[in-house]
Amino acid sequence: MELEDQWWKGQLAADIYQALRYKELKLPSFKGQSPQLNLRRYFADLIAIVSNRFRLCPTARHLAVYLLDLFMDRYDVTVQQLHMVSLSCLLLASKFEEREDRVPKLETLNNLGCMSSMNLVLTKQGLLHMELLLLETFQWNLYLPTSAHFTDYYLSIAVHEGDLHDGWPMTCLEKTKLYMAKYVDYFLEVSLQDHVFLCFAPSLVAAACVAASRLILHLSPTWPPRLQRLTGYAWENLIPCTEKLLIAHDSDVKEANKQKCQQPNQQQQQGQTAYHTSAQYLNRTNAQYPQQAPQPVTAPNHLPASYLSHSTANGPQSINTQTISTSLDPKSNIPNRAFQVSMHYTCAAPCFDR
């Protein structure tokens, strides 16, 4: 772990980061003109599920979805063909990002339960043909940075011992780093669900994931100078993207809360709790941090019910296949809102013990 931390601070990591930022400037433009754009969420979920099944790295998953986005943006593809295209994108991305022994094999893919439900059988010749078509489309260049390529570098300084939690010094730096990584992973997956995030540069999305995570975890300042220097983004640059991430998070919290309240006698046991939208606090300055009692630990995968956010001191159409279920709802057409800035949350974030 010590060597890994030192590696991120070295010149090699900085050179890799600068190369990614330079390559980012030459990424193909996404126009969102695919006739099957309303099916994008379904196929992004398919890629995510198969990726998780084979435990592929996040960069492979994000690159696969990005390849799918660019391909759909250029071609009118039938639904049945999109299944083949999606899996071919995942195979190409895994060959580019993963070790050879981790690349999914044809037989293993065909044995997946979702393949029979989609009435799809992959053949070696069919996959080779599709992979060649994809490679020719991208001119044999798969060096396409995604937000997942930047997050590890940003996470290296995302939490510092000098940060405050609700205005108090942190008592467990390692636990805070763990929760930060969990939340950044969550927001990365949120950004994968909606093509609206393709309007932002991948490095900006990655920075916004860190900023949103710091908001959720009540860390102050929200965007310290060290992160601004490392990422090259000021807080004002991150607000639009961070706002969309937090709106998606609030939607997930409300949905989870709704399902919890539907359980027998759940409302009687817990009573009524007021929840407010986190994104409305993005533009708030000089936030006050009242003293609060320590809160119980809640894993990020179970999304906290409410939280205090503060600013820095500086659906797809149905098709004849098995529905793929996820914990996130489609976030298409996320509205731009004017958020109030004078309210306070009624309860603290149950993120970690102070």
TrEMBL record:
Domain Cyclin C-terminal positions: 145-279
Repeat in keyword set: no
Signal peptide: none
Gene3D superfamilies in alphabetical order: Cyclin-like
Start and end residues of each stretch annotated as Disordered: 312-331
Entry annotated with the keyword Nucleotidyltransferase: no
Cyclin-like domain: residues covered: 45-136, 153-247
Domain of life of the source: Eukaryota
SUPFAM superfamilies documented for this protein: Cyclin-like
Coiled coil segments of this chain: none
Parts of the chain that traverse the membrane: none
Keywords (A to Z) from UniProt: Cyclin
Protein family according to the UniProt entry: Belongs to the cyclin family.
Function (record text): Essential for the control of the cell cycle at the G2/M (mitosis) transition.
SUBUNIT field: Interacts with the CDK1 protein kinase to form a serine/threonine kinase holoenzyme complex also known as maturation promoting factor (MPF). The cyclin subunit imparts substrate specificity to the complex.
Protein name (Swiss-Prot/TrEMBL): Cyclin-J
Originating species: Astatotilapia calliptera (Eastern happy)
Gene designation: CCNJ
